Amino acid sequence: MEKEKFLELNDLYLEFKVDKGSLKALEGISFYMKKGEILGLVGESGCGKSITALSIVGLLPNTAKISKGEIWFKGETLQNMKEENLRKIRGKEISMIFQEPMTSLNPVLNIGEQVMEHAMLHLDISRSEARKLAIEMLKSVGLSRAEELLKEYPHQLSGGMKQRVMIALALICRPELIIADEPTTALDVTIQAQILDLLKKINKEFETSILFISHDLGVINELCDRVLVMYAGEIVESAKVKDLFINPIHPYTIGLMDSIPAPEKKGKELYFIPGRIPGLEERKGDSCRFSPRCPKAQDICFKEHPKVYDVTGEHKAMCILAEKEES
Amino acid sequence: MENIKNLLEVKNLKKYFPAKRKKIREKKRYVKAVDGISFTIKEGETLGLVGESGCGKSTAGQALIRLIEPTSGEIIFNDKNITYGKKILKDLVRKEMQIIFQDPYSTLNPRKKIGWTLREPLVINKVGTLKEQNKKIDEMLDVVGFDSTYRKRYPHELSGGQRQRIGIARALMLNPQFIVADEPVSALDVSVQSQVLNLMKDLQTKFDLTYLFISHDLNVVEYLSDRVAVMYLGKIIEISDVDEIYRKPLHPYTQSLLSSIPSTKVDNEKERIILEGDVPSPLNPPSGCSFHPRCPQAMDICSKKEPIYREISKDHKVSCHLYK
Fold this sequence. Notes:
The complex is a heterodimer of chains A (327) and B (324). Chain A is α/β, with parallel strands linked by helices. Chain A has helices at 49-57, 83-89, 101-104, 111-123, 127-140, 146-149, 159-171, 189-206, 217-223, 241-246, 251-258, 299-303, 322-325, and strands at 7-18, 21-33, 38-42, 64-73, 76-77, 94-97, 177-181, 209-214, 226-231, 234-240, 309-312, 315-317. Chain A has a domain at 251-327. Chain B is globular and about 70 Å long. The mean pLDDT of chain B is 90.
């Protein structure tokens, strides 16, 4: 087992079946994660962030199919694994936290049942042990009334508390990887700050790796070590968070950063990226996917798909402009 | 700014919703969604209204333009009391005060063309002939950046940002003076969000609009507002100029709210005040200052006595026992 890259996606292509053939949702996604790392995945709605996450845990909808590429997790490939084997990994070694804490808990089961079921299924422990573990876990995510909470139902909890329960659920088997898909988007800033703090703590204490999906560059900056920027089914830039913010290369990344309303931009016109993200059926041909919206597009961008250039060490960008920067 | 008159003056506005009784013969209980707020908005100004979900900011916005009827209090608009009465609602409020909603996907009728949606306010208020209405619709479409062919489009043909621009155009059809923008960019991606913000700013100068800008996104509020009011559990706990409040927040809640904004600056060594717990239920608010159970600086008096909402320095009001 390679410790350096314990999760690796290699040239992953994903297609959705439609009436007239298929549409590509992911095209050549390659990235790796190191153990204990918090990796951010940022992009606008419809760019393929969530589907990337779902393909790792094998929770794709029936119409989606991985047409090419590999997903390696601790020396095993996940994409062709049998459902029953995958089920052992999912929840135990890789768990997920979803965006909507309101809809991801079962409304007719109390919190205790849901947390304990998970532990009993994967850890093969008795009910009373599971109960003990559940209480301990709920306490560790900052829910002090854990004993009472076990008997309560999701509708009795606030959004922030539900998200904590979800995190406790995700953590109970001590997974090595947590995939968090916009876990704070539905929450208020003060609660968001609590949850981010908690994720950082978990990452330090248990050495849990976190794949953190978000559309908010601010949150990514606060939490992550490294970041991938996605656009229209491709990873267009990847770098250490610091490098990305100091020296963004891809015009899309720059556009995203410029459109954030910051104090120093008050009174000035805000930058916006013209046009919109192309739909799946519009992603054809060999051009750079961002070229129709790109302020720096050259002739070549409309003809040739850019390759990925290495800027420095871990900083990569899929843009012709990065050619100059290449070291 | 001194001589500019107040367009809107709100005095002790309250909106209580009756809560379901759990037992027969239980005393009637109320959710105090908006519990006595007072503020003024000057002509041409943008007042930002921030707070966490459930603090009553949307209810306040809707009660202000009487989309829901206030329980008590006074709303003075252009020196006229508009709080009660059907006639004034029809003649004045509906024409001069408009709202832009949060979710552009559910606020446009999916079965009607854009032209129909934009015409509706004119038809209801019997403004102009068909020809004049058409002219007005084309004008408005142009203002928000569409050509007249968009009259024949359906909402599903438009993206989120485009729909929100239609929502803005609809709000402007009757040339209102005052607009409540209730989280207008929260459902949009950042790159599109900035386009809508720019548009709102342009329109403000073009049509002399006054905004109440409701949002939970503190970056957006800072960018757009002249003054900011912070709400907590149905009350305004601090109000001031935007620069003053962002640089020198007084109320501990405002301080922690501002410190929780995720920053995009590298090497950001900001001290973060992380609040414990959640917003209490407005059905059963804590005694004294409603923020005291979460307040890092709470004193004995905070749980006993409600602080007075008072002016600390010029145009800076706060309701907290720390400031006397």
